[in-house]
């Protein structure tokens, strides 16, 4: 039996509350227990009896679901159902962290390269759920090189695969210099740039949001080149103040333990310089072009419309436009005080000025009551003013 002690205790409790056992002439609890130990009651020693009464552990359920998912001889529907069940189980952070000790990361990552897009989608969903706000899982999975697999999936012909890959990638890169290092070395920026012009406007929104998040978490100054000697700033807090000897309760007051920083911050791997990467990968140019009319001088000419029919101007999607504009404003806030040090070319400067003019202009939908484009997008006045003060003198 997998848990003999618990099973014996459960059995004794059940027997002690059984009318047939406590009635006159029935065998005692001790006698039945002795019979089980001697092998005379195989019907009660069956491990499945314990499972039937108490239910399987979540760890056992995870193993069983993953076994089904990996069995290529089973119907696709059964495998997908198993992966869906697995994803529900690892929504619990303890179960997600147990994937490491149970050696489940390697098979899950292998499923990202499965032939079936349904399996790829489910595996990316599991990865994204496991690392969501879970620094331990973010670090544990890096051993299995998930970034390469996810950036490959961003190029998939299947829309759902691309969406789930972005979901997983966003969770993995969040405040994670080690994952960002993998991403940077694999030129994941190229995949992000492609996602910015994806036919699915939902994926464009997620990409713009991620770009802003990466800018926001980057500790580097604009022109700083990270090196291996650079260490990530720790988020550990100091010890709580210890009461003085004058305090009557000081003798019995425990010292507060040192708060541990997230596992993602316990690394000497430097965070890549995000603004410089956005410049060199043309992501910044793509963001600016997507927020301006197509006839604006300097905009990219290869930007595709969005929507199922490929005929929707992304500027009309307020959610995307707000996220893309916010990313531009965050980028601008990182520029050095002397903008000449940023070495922006005249084309980019012209597009920044064009965006300023666009944001100060009338909203695209004047029926919603907004008087300017920036207010239509829900941009805070302070953020817009800072952007204006930075760009206007150029």
TrEMBL record:
The keyword Repeat applies. Keywords: Repeat. Residues 226-260 are annotated as: Disordered. GO terms for molecular function: adenyl-nucleotide exchange factor activity. Belongs to the FES1 family. PANTHER family: HSP70-BINDING PROTEIN 1 (PTHR19316:SF18), PROTEIN FOLDING REGULATOR (PTHR19316). This is Related to FES1 - Hsp70 nucleotide exchange factor.
């Amino acid at each position: 039996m997998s848990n003999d002690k618990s099973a014996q205790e459960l059995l004794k409790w059940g027997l002690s509350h059984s009318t047939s056992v406590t009635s006159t002439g029935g065998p005692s609890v001790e006698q039945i227990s002795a019979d089980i130990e001697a092998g005379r009651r195989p019907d009660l020693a069956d491990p499945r009896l314990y499972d039937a009464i108490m239910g399987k552990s979540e760890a056992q359920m995870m193993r069983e679901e993953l076994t089904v998912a990996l069995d290529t001889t089973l119907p696709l529907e059964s495998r997908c159902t198993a992966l869906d069940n697995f994803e529900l189980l690892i929504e619990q952070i303890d179960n997600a962290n147990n994937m490491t000790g149970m050696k489940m990361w390697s098979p899950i990552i292998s499923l990202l390269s499965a032939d079936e897009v349904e399996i790829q989608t489910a595996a990316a969903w599991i990865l994204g759920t496991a690392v969501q706000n879970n620094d331990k899982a973010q670090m544990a999975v890096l051993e299995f090189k998930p970034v390469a697999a996810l950036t490959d999936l961003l190029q998939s012909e299947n829309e759902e695969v691309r969406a789930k890959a972005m979901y997983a990638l966003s969770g993995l890169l969040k405040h994670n210099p080690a994952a960002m290092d993998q991403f940077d070395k694999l030129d994941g920026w190229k995949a992000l740039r492609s996602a910015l012009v994806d036919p699915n406007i939902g994926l464009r929104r997620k990409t713009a949001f991620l770009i802003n998040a990466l800018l926001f978490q980057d500790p580097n100054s604009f022109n700083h080149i990270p090196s291996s000697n650079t260490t990530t700033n720790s988020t550990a807090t100091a010890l709580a103040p210890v009461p003085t000897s004058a305090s009557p309760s000081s003798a019995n007051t425990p010292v507060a333990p040192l708060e541990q920083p997230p596992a993602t911050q316990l690394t000497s791997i430097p965070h890549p310089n995000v603004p410089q990467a956005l410049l060199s990968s043309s992501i910044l140019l793509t963001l600016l072009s997507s927020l301006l009319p197509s006839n604006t001088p300097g905009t990219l000419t290869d930007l595709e419309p969005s929507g199922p029919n490929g005929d929707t101007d992304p500027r009309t999607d307020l959610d995307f436009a707000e996220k893309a504009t916010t990313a531009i404003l965050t980028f601008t806030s990182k520029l050095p005080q002397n903008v000449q040090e940023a070495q922006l070319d005249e084309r980019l400067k012209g597009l920044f000025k064009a965006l300023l003019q666009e944001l100060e202009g009338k909203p695209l939908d004047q029926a919603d009551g907004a008087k300017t484009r920036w207010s239509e997008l829900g941009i805070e006045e302070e953020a817009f003013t800072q952007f204006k003060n930075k760009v206007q003198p150029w």
